[in-house]
Design a protein that fits this description.
The complex is a heterodimer. By secondary structure, chain A is α/β, with parallel strands linked by helices. In chain A, about 30% of the residues lie in helices and about 15% in strands. In chain A, the strands form three sheets. In chain A, strands 2, 6, 9, 10, 11, 12 and 13 form a seven-stranded mixed beta sheet that branches. A three-stranded mixed beta sheet of chain A has the order 1-7-8. Chain B has three domains: about 150 residues, no CATH class; about 70 residues; about 180 residues, no CATH class. Chain B is built from 27 helices and four strands. The chains are: A alpha/beta, B mainly alpha. At the A-B interface, helix 6, strand 8, helix 8 and helix 9 of A face helix 13, helix 21, helix 22, helix 23 and helix 25 of B.
Amino acid sequence: MGIANHLPTRRELLVGSGALFAWSQMPRIARAEGRDPRLLVVILRGALDGLGAVAPVGDPDWISLRGDRALLLDGKPQALPLDSFFALNPAMPNLHRLYKIGKAAIVHATATPYRERSHFDGQDVLESGFTKPGATASGWLNRALLAMESGGRVDPHGSRALGIGSVTPLVVRGAAPVMTWVPQKLLPASEDTQNRLLDLYQHTDPKLATVLQARMKLASLGGARGSGDPMPDDPTLMPPGAARVRAFFAEAAGTAARYLAKPDGPRVGAMGFVGWDTHIAEGAASGQLYNLLGALDGAFAAIETNMSEVWHETVVAVVTEFGRTARINGTEGTDHGTGTVAFLIGGGLTGGCVIADWPGLKPAQLFEDRDLKPTTDLRAVLKGLLRDHLRVDEKVLAEAVFPGSADVKPMGGLVG
Amino acid sequence: MSNSAKAAAVLALHRFGMGPRPGSVAALGSDPRGALIAELDRPLALTAAASLPPSAKAYRIVADANARRAARAKQAQQQAKKQQMAAATAMSEDQTQGQAQDKDKDVAEMAAKQAAEAVPDPGRPIYLQEAKLRTEAALVAEIGFAERLVWFWSNHFCISANKIQSMSGAYEREAVRPNVLGRFVDLLLAVEGHPAMLFYLDNLGSMGANSIAGINRSRGLNENIAREIMELHTLGVRTGYTQDDVISFANVMTGWTLVPPGDNPEHGGEFIFNPRLHEPGGQTVLGKLYEQEDVEQGRAVLRDLAANPATATHVATKLARHFVADEPPPVLVEQMAKTFRDTEGDLKQVAIAMVSSDEAWRGPPSKLKRPSEWGVGMVRATGITTVDPERFTGGQALLGEALWRPSAPKGYPDDEASWIDGVGRRLDIANNFAERIAGMADPQAIIADVFASEIAPEVKQAVGRAESRQQALALLFMSADFQRR
């Protein structure tokens, strides 16, 4: 028996750069109301082109801006109409369906407070919830958990959080402990070996003990496997084809949903998908971006399916570090920009609308004459969800979760 | 050797090397610093690399295979269509024409796919051979300080095999390895001018708006390489450069591309400066005007970026963070940055300055090894010097650090918070490896001979009480003594 018998799949490779996180307690206030809400945060790493995902087809400057790469209602393929002004990338029929029944909303021309164009700083601001990069080592989701009163199922010895992946993203790091789950492809060490190692760590390295303990606890929770299609192993580790990316997105998001759906499972999670940095041959209507958005659309379907009976208590927020240039660059792609979109889906959502204070696309209306100008602070959206869905206190949101955001009012009416 | 000398040797091997292997503690003797510095004088070249193709050749091999694959697919599709036309007359009447056409299309596509797959992909075997070579260099090195520097710089100037698999190993051998003990500016010029980097950071088709190609083809600039060179490779983020600097520098870099493999069977895949893509005229970067007309314009900017004091600080901080601590002592960083500045970026002197500083040795072994370092350390401890690259790279990938495949140009992170939650996963690998080698590796002997018994008493006890040799080895490999440095 060797490692060669258990080659990693594409799934595990990609999972190494994303992660899922969840909290195993339910919020006390929400439970008092007879609710049991679930929140999943999906981070699109690499900066999603919001204009390539949700096109302002009603803007008179749209076609001149993107030329033959502009998504159009009569394009090929045809963009999916959302309202009289916006249309959705045709790769996302499932999101379109959810939108039509009021279970999806789109926020456009939104951004974090970050106004530079470094991915890594941008993700730092997005995930830390601070206004500047490098300000803290914890994420807003983790701090939101800390601030919430627990309504039960507290295990003082165990972790309250779950993560998928080998690299934990900042949004979930912090004082609330995290436990991780990576798809099991190797035969695990025996329980006895794990117990002995735990004993050794407890005497020599408390931090490693905490990590191992969390892993063992998660294993005992067990049973998150579902009926989803098993992905074929990929021993070649070759760059992913579109089908493989699709399968991975669906598998990862579906697994997250299965954990969140369990009656005694976690309630809050986060995961990341990479690959959105479309500098070359972006392919909004067919190509890279189209395929990625299609994979994301499939992930939405997997979440809805696996959430099953608790779908009506579910909200999923899909966010990215910033947008891309409004114009196409010299290599048929887009460079790092500013304003972009956020997708909100879930049975708990009051959707069916595009939320946007549209800034316009004329050169003078663009941010620094190059990017979609952000007019909605992404923190307002996230604060609205945390307040109205999880019942996190508004003052805590302004001070601890998104410090310095007192003048950014939580956006109301998103859930309920 | 005294116990304290042994402890210092073990620390040196973990912190600055690839971990203890049989005989290495004794080889370090009573002067681990001197031994580390002496290792930097030994040749770093990989003699076995002579059998591997240079990057341009590897690129051509894969490009040729891709072209063959496309041709076969087209051929098969055409044949399938011909057969279908012949069969169309014999079509049964209950089948509507539309259905038949759809089916025919599927059949043709399937035939094309099968024909394409019949052409093997040569990129994967090249990647594995390269992986084997670099991993075994780390296994046989006496200490492995120089190999660690190769790994560090390869990650600092990372590319991704997900994008450019054919060149991923050759890139490290050609651009990184020969320069890690030379001057930073030479390393910088080598990596930024390497076709693998230009491919990875999207510079191949970037063209100036007023260049010949730019005017004729109405394509244009790609900012990626300019931004990442300043943000990640040299100055560091938030060091004062602006969006205008990025654009100007991107203009400077236009024309840095490679020879298309289809046009040139001898030089395809090699670096070339193509003046037709290059934005004419002077460019101002960080307040300085560069008026050179050709490849020298880019080289001049790169030389100035290498000499910028921000680069010294950025590089010194990253090196100290990698080797010494997530939060390295500021005194150490400043000593290294000063050496960098005083020696015009002599990286050997910077490495010597690091191990010569007491600050680099003072702290406890609190640094969590990255998966690759831990994996190599585990194999080294057993005295094994060859690896099955498929298995080894598979293990690295499972632990989230797939070789030459970071998910972003920033490379793999170097802090505990990024990796600690994956430690549990290491148990699967350790358990698996222990199972495979339990017949030949004696955990007690590893503790006594390889570690010179410089290991926590609790670990010795746990190993002694283990129910099997496999379990003992797994516990040893998972112990904090193996995980931290």
